[in-house]
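Hi support team,

I've been running sequence recovery on a batch of backbones for a student project. Most finish fine, but this one hangs at about 90% for roughly twenty minutes before it completes. I'm not sure whether the input is malformed or the queue is just slow. I've pasted the structure tokens below so you can try to reproduce it. Let me know if you need the job ID as well.

Thanks,
M.K.
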């Protein structure tokens, strides 16, 4: 059969009595009369017929319009008297529940109600043997300070705050009162976000924040008593991405006999990019760019200044470019090596070959020195031997062996120091 389950309470009384779907006489422990005030009803399917129950609020808390009213931090002790009958409850065993434990908590077996934060919740007395039979009433929690407390200010730390998208954190909120006391208790303050698309309040009791979108937003915190005080926290939510470049500025000489290009490495959060990277130049009349991922090459076009914009994951950094035109010695010495860097698999080894051209067709012999900006990521050794320079054994010779040790980006150079010139060639190596 269909059993109608009711909400019931009493005005200025401490006993709530419910029988099936009828409110019966209210026992008034304060001797102020008996008034039954229904506050609504629900219907639930059950085969156990009607039960009757009398719920007692043993702490003499305020009842108004059939609603139990508490302030944040207050408690109320509930008990009940359940009657069985042939068509009703098969057992008096029961338990207590709250529809919103962030507002009101209730002991499952004890019936002790604790007000957590401002709001309303339904507290229900449920028959164990027939969970569809329940007796519920409303608890209203006022987020006000105790009598005699007047808030004078409210502080939030950290303020301002910056954190990446996906972060969930709880700021420290302190309410200061006129009697020189303070409170950080949940529920003694409220908070609102000016844009929940950037910062969402995921726990209104503690004002726990969640960064859900990139941007800056104000979160307002208030405390209410005989007066209301508020303060604003500025929050900057970032994408959580950091872009690094090698080098941090570009200098290209397009003079006669000069190399008019410059290699450029990009890393994201200290490692080879795993997300799309774009590099653009403005204006392109000064320089152009080609490449992908973590390895790029700039080519000088005309004398002037330009800016390279490196973007990844919604974040951008700018790199200055200076292009000059100072003639190099025609037919002068030059050095290069192949392959010109690029991607190298983890734990892989690549042997390079340096070409050093001097006047008259001479070569550098074994005067090539090899180096890496990050030997912990990409180490380089010369297969032709080492030479001690200032107490350090430098790998020398035309063949450089590049070894990938970890994910990331490095600049590997070969250099030859001659009597009249120092030659150097640098290329970027990337291990995803």
């Amino acid at each position: 059969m269909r059993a109608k389950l009711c909400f019931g309470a009493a005005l200025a009384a401490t006993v709530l009595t419910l029988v099936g779907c009828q409110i019966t006489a209210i026992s008034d422990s304060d001797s102020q009369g008996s008034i039954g005030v229904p506050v609504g009803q629900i219907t639930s399917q059950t085969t156990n017929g009607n039960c009757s129950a009398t719920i007692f609020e043993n702490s003499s808390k305020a009842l108004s319009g059939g609603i139990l009213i508490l302030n944040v931090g207050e408690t109320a002790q509930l008990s009940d008297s359940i009657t069985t009958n042939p068509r009703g409850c098969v057992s008096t065993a029961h338990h207590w529940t709250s529809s919103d434990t962030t507002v009101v908590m209730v002991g499952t077996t004890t019936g002790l109600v604790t007000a957590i934060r401002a709001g309303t919740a339904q507290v229900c007395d449920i028959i164990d043997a027939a969970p569809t039979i329940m007796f519920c009433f409303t608890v209203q929690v006022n987020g006000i300070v105790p009598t005699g407390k007047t808030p004078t200010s409210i502080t939030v730390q950290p303020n301002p705050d910056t954190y990446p998208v996906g972060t969930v954190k709880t700021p420290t909120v302190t309410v200061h009162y006129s009697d020189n006391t303070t409170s950080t208790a949940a529920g003694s303050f409220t908070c609102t976000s000016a844009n929940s698309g950037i910062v969402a309040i995921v726990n209104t009791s503690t004002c726990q924040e969640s960064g859900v979108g990139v941007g800056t937003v104000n979160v307002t915190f208030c405390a209410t008593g005989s007066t209301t005080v508020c303060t604003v926290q500025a929050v900057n939510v970032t994408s959580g991405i950091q872009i690094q470049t090698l080098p941090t500025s570009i200098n290209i000489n397009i003079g006669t006999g000069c190399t008019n290009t410059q290699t450029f490495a990009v890393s994201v959060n200290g490692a080879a990019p795993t997300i799309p990277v774009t590099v653009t130049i403005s204006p392109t009349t000064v320089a152009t760019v080609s490449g992908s991922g973590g390895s790029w090459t700039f080519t000088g076009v005309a004398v002037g200044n330009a800016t390279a914009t490196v973007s990844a994951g919604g974040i951008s950094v700018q790199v200055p470019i200076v292009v000059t035109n100072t003639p190099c010695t025609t037919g002068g010495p030059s050095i290069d090596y192949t392959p010109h860097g690029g991607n190298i698999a983890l734990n892989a080894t690549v042997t390079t070959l340096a070409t050093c051209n001097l006047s008259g067709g001479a070569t550098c012999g074994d005067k090539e020195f090899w180096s890496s900006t990050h030997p912990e990521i990409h180490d380089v050794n010369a297969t032709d031997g080492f030479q001690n320079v200032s107490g350090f054994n430098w790998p020398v010779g035309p063949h450089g062996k590049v070894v990938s040790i970890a994910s990331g980006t490095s600049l590997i150079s070969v250099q030859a120091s001659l009597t009249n010139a120092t030659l150097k060639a640098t290329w970027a190596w990337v291990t995803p």
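--
Follow-up from support: It reproduced on our side and the slowdown came from queue contention, not your input. The first strand starts at residue 2 and ends at 10. No action needed from you.
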